[in-house]
Amino acid sequence: MSTSTLPAMKTNPKFVFFTDFDGTITQSDSNDYLTDTLGMGTELRKKGNQDVLFDRKSFRQSFGEMMHSVSETTPYDKCIDILLKNIKLDVGFRDFLEWSTAQNVPVVVLSSGMEPIIRALLVHLIGPLANDIQIVSNTVAPRDGKSINEVGGWEIVFHDESHFGHDKSREIRPYKALPQEERPTMFYAGDGVSDLSAAKETDLLFAKKGHDLVNYCVRENVPFEVFEDWSSILSTVQSIVAGKATVQEVVARGLEEVKSGNA
Ligand SMILES: [Mg+2]
To answer: Which CATH architecture has domain 14-259?
Structure first.
């Protein structure tokens, strides 16, 4: 595939940063927040996540049920209003974005959430700098002949037919397949079950401390570096971009941390 067809290759970057949105760029997960406070509640939501982790349900099925339970109580515009008041940006992400924009390191959001919510939150939390971020995600549509801004009037529309609903690896693979001289070094940051499809695809994976993705990567032997917020991601990526560290060194360091129990 020619680079011109890949959105993040427009500026011929040497590095591309793919990232999850909910719970990774934000401090808490907006879909969890909706499900816990307006939908089926925390207990059933956690059970749904466990079902996915242990292969009892697909992510698509479990997450679809969660969003359906929110739609049954709350119009879509009301959901966005509530999230704008309650979801905060993760520490250090703004600094990371300013640096990456200046350094020609495109940031691509790969999300299992819905595009209108993600764009509204990004613009609200970051401002105009967020307009250039590419978002690849699910979206929303009316249902039962209603408007999305009525109770029971919206439903999630999945990005693809995979059991993930949005198979994040599909967006990354064409970049991996580029000829060696064009292929950028790729990073990915994530925190949870929606990131399982992407976890093995990039050169360096950052997994958020204390979250499901860490457990999954340990279990599946997927190398990663643990992060608590974006300040450590920024310093690691800066050192790689500046040639002071290699991806291989960082991966080896991550494996040591897991072995010593610090992850
Ligand atoms: Mg997440």
So the answer is: 3-Layer(aba) Sandwich (3.40)
